[in-house]
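Appendix B, record 7
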Amino acid sequence: MLNPEMTHDGPARRCGALASTDGSVLFRVWAPAAKRVDLVLIDRGQRSEVAMKPESGGYFRLGMAAASDGLRYAFRLDGGPDRPDPCSLHQPEGVHRPSEVVRTDRFSWTDSAWKGVARRDLVLYELHVGTFSPEGTFDGAIPRLPELRELGVTAIEIMPVAQFPGDRNWGYDGTFLYAAQESYGGPEGLHRLVDACHAEGLAAFLDVVYNHLGPEGSYVREFGPYFNDHYRTPWGSAVNYDDRGSDAVRDFVLDNVRMWLQEFHLDGLRLDAVHAIYDLGARHILRAIGEVAEEVAARRGWPATIIAESDLNDPRLLHDRDRGGLALSAQWADDFHHAVHAYLTGERDGYYADFTETSRPGNALGPGGFIARALESPFVYAWEESSFRGRKHGAPPVGLSGDRFVVCLQNHDQVGNRPRGDRVMAALDRPKQRLAAGLMLLSPYLPMLFMGEEYGEESPFPFFCSFGDPELVRAVREGRKREFETFSWQEEVPDPQGEETFRSAKLSWSWLEGSPGAGLRRLYRDLLTARREWPALRDSDRRRVWLTNNQPGAGPVLKLERIGEGAGGVLQAVFNLGNRPARIPDWAGDRSSILFRSEAPEYGGGRRDDAAADELAPFEFVAIGPPYWRAFPGR
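Structure tokens (predicted):
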């Protein structure tokens, strides 16, 4: 029985197929330009159409007393073609076909005792569902969770799963923000993965894209003013957060935030490229997202953490609202990656030009200087001249603790946005890999690992997709080639549409005992143990950095001093940033209290037993602290 007056007691979403606990479903859609909207029902092959009742604000509704499992539906606007629901939770036949009614309340959660992971304890692990396991599904990822927990990871960060065209994609071409990708296992598969994470003691974060929609299957333009042309983004028109009709667009996004956190029990969201989210309204959409997260966290009793990706070096994303900030939980700090990458690889193209020894007119930094700056402050560029941008960039992050910033050695962008998707860490020699790991994991920031880096995965992670529109496929292929014009890379770009490109990105998930990969993974595990157990690494505020280049015949030596809370003690990490042996400086502390060395044989290093205690091998680092911090067996 259909009833335009029916209400519902189901989820807090405003639109979509809103299933109530009594079995009824309320269909509601925003289509302000339409004079008539018909609901198309497809049940066991039988098709019917019913006119929906218009409401104020451009909404249309129609209730259904009972709906069978697997019921498909679509909308017709003013007699036009069938269109999927913009708020669909499941697209079982892809982005162009009807939507399916999903009852999220039917999943049997087992995480009632889950209390989440505090922000300061986050160790993020970015993974792509399609390439993380041989199955390429949510369920396929579950057996690998114990290995991540044993490593010391505390949270996975899942690359976007919003339904995209075809069955392979990075996820940033999603066109249905509410629908978990069918080829990954759909909404029930995502439920199972999050529940399994919590059972394993891991938080689960989801990467969401609120700055654009993908180019194929994005029918929302036919429904309403979801975009405006006042601003331009790399993907075309900007999402409409501040122009006419934007109230409903904002609700569309805020309901999506609430759904992921509330109905899917996700611990937090990573917001893609917020520098491409434009909103000149008095209540910025990013502030509103943070407020929704706080409401959900208060209701459920465990954190709902919002992390923004931004290349603006703008502390206002994190400042409290009474200071005019947006009060998000944390943001990515790319300067750390750029400084380490440029130094260890020697690359100087594109944005790496800002991290060369002569890139700051009047303020040149010597070898290793940018790494030292990045350890002192998450923003190396804080209203200083950027040669890459041709202007001043960033602002000082005054008053913000280190655990408000996420750093990495590589991520999907830094790997996949290279011509062949080659992993930079895998291209470095092993001592440099270990050095880089130490810089990140002993830093005062929140570390994020990209899947496989902990054992030196060598499989690439190139850009891949499976669009159905031939013209779009051609444009993507040509666009990928143009993308690298500002870099000097000459490698052939793999065909993004080719299935072999996707297959090449599958993880090997292999570190044979005694292999360099096993040694690297052990180093990651031990450093993550230290982050949990050594008091000096629990304080993300107090640190000091020294850099010296005065040892004859040696390169720069850097010391990072981390100071524990209260009487928690001091950790001194000394890094040889040069390719020749160096000495631990006299001012570096008591050499008899060396807790571990990155070039020890158990990490795959080649340190000799007869080497002097104060000698540092090329690119070796040591940790010096109280002897009672020796948390690792045999050391």
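Remarks on this record: The chain has three domains: 2-106, 119-503, 535-629. The domain at 119-503 is CATH 3.20.20.80 (TIM Barrel).
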